[in-house]
């Protein structure tokens, strides 16, 4: 299994409706992209305060590195990026193979 996770800082003025639209588009990729098993997301909720300004996070689970690699240039992913990326000020994405 491969975990693909990221954190977002949305641009100033991006409202809750627009944020929900972004994550809905991302969640809808499950079942559309082979090997993408699950996608979870939510707002930052820790009292630690170590979020460095990032406000939301997500985790995607892929069945293999090959599926993750095929997802990256997949046309559905490219369309979702057209929805999400313009709303972002900053993002970080990190992948690891689950042990």
Percent strand equals 25-35%
User: What is the helical fraction, as a range of percent?
Assistant: 25-40%
Shape label = globular
**Could you tell me the mean pLDDT?**
97
Number of helices: 3
Structure description:
The model has no long low-confidence stretch (mean pLDDT 97). 11% of the residues are buried. It is globular, with a radius of gyration of 13 Å. It is of the alpha+beta class. Strands 2-3-1-4 form a four-stranded antiparallel sheet. It contains three helices and four strands; from the N terminus they run E-H-E-E-H-H-E. It has a single domain (2-94), classed as Alpha-Beta Plaits, CATH 3.30.70.100.
List the helices and strands and how they pair.
Blueprint: E1 2-10, H1 16-27, E2 36-43, E3 56-62, H2 65-71, H3 75-84, E4 88-97
Antiparallel strand pairs: 1-3, 1-4, 2-3
Helix pairs in contact: 1-3
Summarize the entry for a quick read.
The chain is of the alpha+beta class and 99 residues long. It has helices at residues 16-27, 65-71, 75-84, and strands at 2-10, 36-43, 56-62, 88-97.
């Amino acid at each position: 299994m491969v975990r693909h996770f990221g954190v977002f800082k949305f641009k100033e003025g991006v409202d809750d409706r627009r944020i929900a639209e972004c994550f809905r588009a991302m969640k809808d990729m499950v079942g559309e992209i082979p090997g993408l098993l699950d996608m979870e997301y939510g707002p930052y909720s820790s009292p630690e305060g170590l979020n460095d300004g990032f406000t939301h996070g997500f985790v995607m689970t892929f069945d293999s590195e090959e599926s993750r690699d095929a997802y990256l240039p997949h046309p559905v992913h490219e369309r979702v990026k057209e929805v999400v990326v313009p709303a972002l000020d900053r993002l970080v994405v990190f992948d690891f193979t689950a042990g």
